Amino acid sequence: MADKPRWYHQGRASGGWHAPRLVRVWIVAPLAVLGAVGAGYLIYRFVVDPLVANASDAIKLTLAIVTLIGAVLAGVYAYRKQRIAESDAHRADANQFADRYTTVAGQLGHDKAAVRLAGVYALARLADDWEEQRQVCIDVLCAYLRMPYQPDPDASGYKEGEREVRLTVLGLIRDHLRLPLVHPHSWQGLHFDFSSVTFDGGDLSGAVFSGGTVDFGRAVFPGGTVSFAGAVFSGGLVSFGRARFSGGTVDFTRAEFSGGTVSFDSGEFSGGLVSFDSGEFSDGTVTFDSGEFSGGLVIFDRARFSGGEVIFGRAEFSGGTVSFGFGARFSGSEVIFDSARFSGGEVIFGRAEFSGGTVSFGFGARFSSSEVSFGRARFSGGEVSFDSAEFSGGTVSFGRTVRFGFGAEFSGSTVDFTRAEFSGGTVDLRSVASWAKPPLFHEEVLSAPPAGLLLPSEPHVRP
Question: What is the pTM of this model?
Fold first, then answer.
């Protein structure tokens, strides 16, 4: 250390100049002056002097050009310096965010619920601050929910306070999905993986799923209340495929399905209540393809179907109740029960209004035991089709009743039984209040009606 000059040690002590920096300054500064003088001479000698006769004017013009070039170079240098400073600041921020992330990860794995809860809030704040890695932070929150969860205090693996932590995660996700898309902290349009999560409660009411992928595949709803009330599904893909609804309440009351695809394909509805009461189906596609309805209650009462598709293709109704009654309105959507199997339980369209669109029970729909009721329904437009449905004995038998009675009114819709087969069970059309458009049958059916087909006085024949 003794062989170093005194200015070096002073600079080290004060955090000031180091020797390499001083050397660079001493060398670069004279070179810059010499370069400027040289450039000025060259401009004067080869550019200005041949064009300007007066030496004084030539010198002034040369100085002006040199000054302009110097200003441009100074601007380039300042811009480069600013970019370097911004890059350094960005790296510093990234390092800070990485440190925060490491701290949060440790909190989420802590044994105490209070520490895990603090980690959840800290991770949500980090997602707000760290836009570049926001999706990663959300992935961690969702992964936390997918971790093994035991809600029974008497069972092995139970963690005290864990339910509160999980409900907090869902609440934070909901709050961010309620923010407008233009808000800097909105999480709309991002991806959420809730696959195989156990939901024994949670509030996602008012959340807006406007893009990205939201996966509830194989999720389990065993009890408690999970609310999607007033949620908006307007884009992207939301999947409840193979989800199991076995208890409690899953509430889609007043939910809006206005775009994208919401899939309940192969879902199991075996208990509890799933309510789409007053839901709005105005666009996009909602599918229950291959769904199993074996128990519980699924309600579409007062729902409005004004656009898009609602598909129950190949669904099996073997128990419980699915209700489209009490003010459900079909004015534009296509509701499809093609290839569905009605072997038990009850499907109710009582008091529903069919004023547009299509409700189809065709292409292999089979009625073997369920009760499908259209009591007091109103048909004023659109089409209700049983084309190629099977009401039959033998391989597929219809053992109970499909009723269009108790005040049902057909004032404009087309109800089509063309190619439907009636060889068992009962289809009762005698008590219909009015026929502006009688149902359509082939002449072969009317010439020798099967025992279970009870017709009005003037059925309509399609050739």
Answer: 0.76
